[in-house]
Each structure stands twice: as C-alpha cells, then as structure tokens.
C-alpha cells in the first residue's frame, strides 16, 4: 500500500484575473518524474490519525490530514475511521517545502488516490479532484496525475496536454516562498498590469518549444516578478537562463 507523490513545475503561469479572494490563472503544469515523496500505509494500532515523516508539521495542518478529514466527511462512513485506527501513514519526504513544487499538495492528492483504491471507495476522479481542491488549488492536477496539463480557473480546470515529460534539472535556493504572500504581492503591485492578449495561444505549444520561444523567465511566470518583490534576495540566487516554478523558490531548466 504505497504510492509516489511527484513534484510539479509550472512551465508557464499567467494570471488572468482575481475573484472571490483568489487569482485565476492559465498554467502548464508538468510532472517531475525523478522527484517524489512516497506515502505508505502501514498496519499499526493508532489512537489518533498518525502521520510519520513530515518533520515538525503539526498533524492538524498537514495537507494529508486535511485530505483525510474531507474524505471522511464526504463518505460519512466508519470504514475510513476504522482503517486509520489500524494503519499509520508514513511519508518519505524528498520534495522541498515552500519551493513551488507542490509537495504538500502532491502528498494530499496521492493520499486521496491511494485511499480511494485501498478502501474501495469507488469515488470518480472528477469528484476526487473537487474534494481535493478544498485542500489546495494545486490538488486537482495531482489527482488527475497527467504528465502534462493545461490548468485554469483557480486550478480546478485540468486538461491533459499530450506530450512527454521533459528531463528537468532543479535548483531550490534556501529561501522558502510563502505562496499566499507571493499572490498578495502580485495583487498589490502587478494585478493591474496584466495583459491577457500577451499569451494568447501559449497553451497550444509543446513545453519545450514554448521555453525556447519565450525564453524569459519573468514573461513565462507572472509570480516570478511578485516573488522578486517579496523576496529580493532571490535575485542573487537566480541562475542565468533558468525558469521559475509556481510561487517559488525553485528554478528549473531542461537537462542537457
Ligand atoms: C502557485 C501555484 O502552486 C501554481 O501552481 C498555485 O496557484 C498555488 O497553489 P497552492 O499552493 O495549492 O495554494 P493554496 O494553498 O490553495 O493557496 C494559498 C494562498 O495563495 C493564494 N492563492 C492561491 C491560489 C490561487 N489561484 N490564487 C490565490 O490567490 C490565496 O491567498 C491562498 O490562501
Ligand atoms: N504534507 C506536507 N508536506 C509539505 N508541507 C506541508 C504538508 N502539509 C502541510 N504543509 C505545510 O505547507 C507549507 C507549504 O508546503 P508545500 O511544500 O506544499 O509548498 P509549496 O512549495 O509552496 O508548494 P506550491 O507549489 O503550492 O507553491 C509548508 O510550509 C508546510 O508547513
């Protein structure tokens, strides 16, 4: 009873607006094949829901626990409660936190997919994605588990994009970027300047072609400029000609 929870990068990320306190976006998400956490369900009597391997993150704020609560509420069954009185969740973390790689979201999505199977919940993937979106905006992409996808809305509209994943090299400086702060900075300084026509048709390009064609990391990812304002020290750590993922702080490029 084991599952891998892969990291993602955002090949491009353009903010399209703001409503209900959240930003809407258009982004190409790509799974990172060789960077993943693993989640294992291990038989053991547990007095409370038990997660091992997530360092000092309190259980209550762990995305895996949030996913459990949402599944529990949705199914309303004693099956899940009973299962987790007799199994613990062991996480092997490899994806750095606050890095723009979606680690916490990927863990929660992998947990939902695994529990759906192991506990024979038979919940359709669309419903799992909707339940997942209540944990975080990145969850639907990880629930569908496509290698590459165009993602829009707040993150809940996920459309598979037919292409192979790229071999990626990642660099995560030791600067944790708080997603909420980066979005807040974007709203304050940059939201008024968005020009929707500047990225018309980007979603149709293969990721490799788009990275070559646009080449500028600031143009490709709207949150990069916001992250540079919120975390000015990022500038010194940015390697020349690398791209920026999500709300940071990871830079990536295609392996040569
Ligand atoms: C930056 C991305 O990772 C790109 O893939 C996502 O858009 C963010 O996804 P996430 O980490 O799952 O974000 P969440 O945990 O849902 O949201 C954290 C905070 O970021 C802001 N937020 C998030 C997503 C979004 N579309 N608009 C926002 O303004 C909100 O203030 C929210 O409270
Ligand atoms: N299972 C988990 N794994 C990692 N972080 C978690 C987890 N559950 C809760 N968190 C909390 O979520 C915060 C953000 O972690 P995460 O690794 O998901 O962020 P991220 O790199 O900002 O992702 P994003 O791509 O969404 O920007 C961390 O500071 C951590 O305290």
From TrEMBL:
User: In the record, what terms sit under GO molecular function?
Assistant: 4-(cytidine 5'-diphospho)-2-C-methyl-D-erythritol kinase activity; ATP binding
Which GO terms are recorded in the biological process aspect for this UniProt protein?
A: isopentenyl diphosphate biosynthetic process, methylerythritol 4-phosphate pathway; terpenoid biosynthetic process
Q: What keywords are annotated for this sequence in UniProt?
A: ATP-binding, Isoprene biosynthesis, Kinase, Nucleotide-binding, Transferase
Instruction: Return the broad EC class.
Output: transferase
NCBIfam families per the UniProt record, alphabetical: ispE, PRK04181.1
> What's the protein called, per UniProt?
4-diphosphocytidyl-2-C-methyl-D-erythritol kinase
Cross-referenced PANTHER family: 4-DIPHOSPHOCYTIDYL-2-C-METHYL-D-ERYTHRITOL KINASE, CHLOROPLASTIC (PTHR43527:SF2)
């Amino acid at each position: 009873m084991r599952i891998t929870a892969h990291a993602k990068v955002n090949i491009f990320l353009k903010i399209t607006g703001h409503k209900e306190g959240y930003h809407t976006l258009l982004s190409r998400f790509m799974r990172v094949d060789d960077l993943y956490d693993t989640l294992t369900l291990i038989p053991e009597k547990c007095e409370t829901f038990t997660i091992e391997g997530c360092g000092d993150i309190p259980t209550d704020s762990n995305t895996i626990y949030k996913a459990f609560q949402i599944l529990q509420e949705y199914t309303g069954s004693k099956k899940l409660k009973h299962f987790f009185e007799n199994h613990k969740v062991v996480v092997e973390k490899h994806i750095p936190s606050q890095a723009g790689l979606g680690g916490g979201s990927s863990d929660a999505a992998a947990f939902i997919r695994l529990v759906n199977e192991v506990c024979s919940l038979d919940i359709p993937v669309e419903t799992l994605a909707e339940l997942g979106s209540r944990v975080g905006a990145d969850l639907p992409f990880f629930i569908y588990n496509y290698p590459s996808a165009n993602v829009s809305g707040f993150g809940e509209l996920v459309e598979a994009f037919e292409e192979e994943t790229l071999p990626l090299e990642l660099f995560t400086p030791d600067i944790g970027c708080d997603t909420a702060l980066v979005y807040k900075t974007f709203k304050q300084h940059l939201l008024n300047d968005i020009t929707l026509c500047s990225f018309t048709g980007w979603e149709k390009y293969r990721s490799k072609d788009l990275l070559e064609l646009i080449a500028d990391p600031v143009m490709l990812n709207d949150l990069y400029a916001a992250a540079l304002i919120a975390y000015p020290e990022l500038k010194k750590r940015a390697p020349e000609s690398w791209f920026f993922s999500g709300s940071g702080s990871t830079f990536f490029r295609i392996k040569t």
